[in-house]
């Protein structure tokens, strides 16, 4: 039997992320006004973010000491051929209010290529996984992007960021609505991309998003057959960049409408 280092890492990641997600769930505040502090407008930081990132970093280092590691809170703390990228709580604004739409996201890159990912949303009871060339799954069942071809049937989510002007945001939302699509916003970039991968929504656009938000989702989207903009090639490896993911049947129309290459 041929040794597959990526498959070994993905299996380990499932366990690590599961335990991290359980930790986060146990620390989640009760529903109500937001807890934690603000790093910027609507950019929350809770004690759980740091605790989960430290937990994942420690476990990965124990299992794969030769691998690199990068987290949202502490940046790149280790270098290696394989690089793990974690968002300890994606959807922190939801988490901080005791809501359910948040997740722990852990992606694996081989150089600059996404090769595996796990997104665990424990309050929703959902785990998305994928390995390059092996398919994408939700709770162990294969997933595929939506088959729609008519934008007037489409549901498109757009993420909000304080780094984007109100004028730009409104322009893109108007372009989406002009297609006859229904706009949505759920507060978690990783889960929005996972929704595109499993066909729950037909597109997701965010003008400025970071690698840790999308590292796991990129391989899940690819394996599910979704169309995705060249995020890593347009600055996403080193800073904020735009991402557009779409059902393949409406990708061309959506790309043209919002003026983002796909």
TrEMBL record:
InterPro entries: IMPase (IPR033942), Inositol_monoP_metal-BS (IPR020583), Inositol_monophosphatase-like (IPR000760), Inositol_monophosphatase_CS (IPR020550)
Record flagged with keyword Cytoplasm: no
The keyword Metal-binding appears for this protein: yes
Gene3D superfamilies: 3.40.190.80, Fructose-1,6-Bisphosphatase, subunit A, domain 1
Molecular function GO labels: inositol monophosphate 1-phosphatase activity; metal ion binding
EC number assigned by the record: 3.1.3.25
Keywords, comma-separated and alphabetical: Hydrolase, Magnesium, Metal-binding
Pfam families, per database record: Inositol_P
Catalytic activity, as annotated: a myo-inositol phosphate + H2O = myo-inositol + phosphate
Cofactor: Mg(2+)
Binding residues annotated for Mg(2+) 2, in chain numbering: 90
Residues that hold Mg(2+) 1 according to the record: 72, 87, 89, 213
GO BP annotations, alphabetical order: inositol metabolic process; phosphatidylinositol phosphate biosynthetic process; signal transduction
Similarity annotation: Belongs to the inositol monophosphatase superfamily.
Official protein name in the record: Inositol-1-monophosphatase
Naturally occurring in which organism (per UniProt): Gluconobacter oxydans (strain 621H) (Gluconobacter suboxydans)
Top-level taxonomy: Bacteria, Pseudomonadati, Pseudomonadota, Alphaproteobacteria, Acetobacterales
């Amino acid at each position: 039997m041929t040794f597959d280092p990526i498959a070994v890492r993905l299996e380990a990641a499932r366990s690590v992320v599961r335990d991290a997600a359980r930790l986060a769930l146990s620390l989640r505040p009760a529903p109500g006004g937001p807890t934690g502090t603000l790093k910027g407008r609507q950019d929350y930081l809770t004690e759980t973010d740091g605790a989960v990132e430290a937990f994942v970093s420690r476990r990965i280092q124990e299992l794969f000491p030769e691998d690199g590691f990068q987290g949202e809170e502490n940046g790149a703390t280790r270098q290696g051929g394989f690089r793990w990228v974690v968002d300890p709580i994606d959807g922190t604004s939801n988490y901080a209010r005791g809501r359910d739409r948040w997740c722990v996201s852990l992606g694996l890159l081989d150089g600059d290529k996404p090769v595996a990912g796990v997104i665990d949303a424990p309050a929703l009871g959902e785990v998305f996984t994928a390995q390059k060339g092996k398919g994408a799954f939700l709770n162990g069942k294969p997933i595929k992007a939506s088959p729609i071809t008519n934008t007037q049937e489409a549901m498109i989510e757009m993420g909000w960021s304080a780094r984007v002007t109100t004028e730009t945001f409104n322009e893109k939302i108007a372009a989406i609505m002009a297609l006859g699509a229904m706009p949505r916003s759920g507060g978690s970039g990783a889960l929005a991309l996972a929704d595109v991968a499993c066909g729950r929504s037909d597109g997701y656009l965010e003008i400025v998003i970071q690698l840790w938000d999308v590292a796991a989702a990129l391989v899940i989207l690819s394996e599910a057959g979704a169309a995705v903009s060249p995020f890593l090639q347009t600055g996403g490896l080193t800073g904020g960049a735009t991402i557009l993911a779409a059902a393949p049947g409406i990708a061309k129309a959506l790309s043209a409408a919002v003026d983002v290459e796909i």
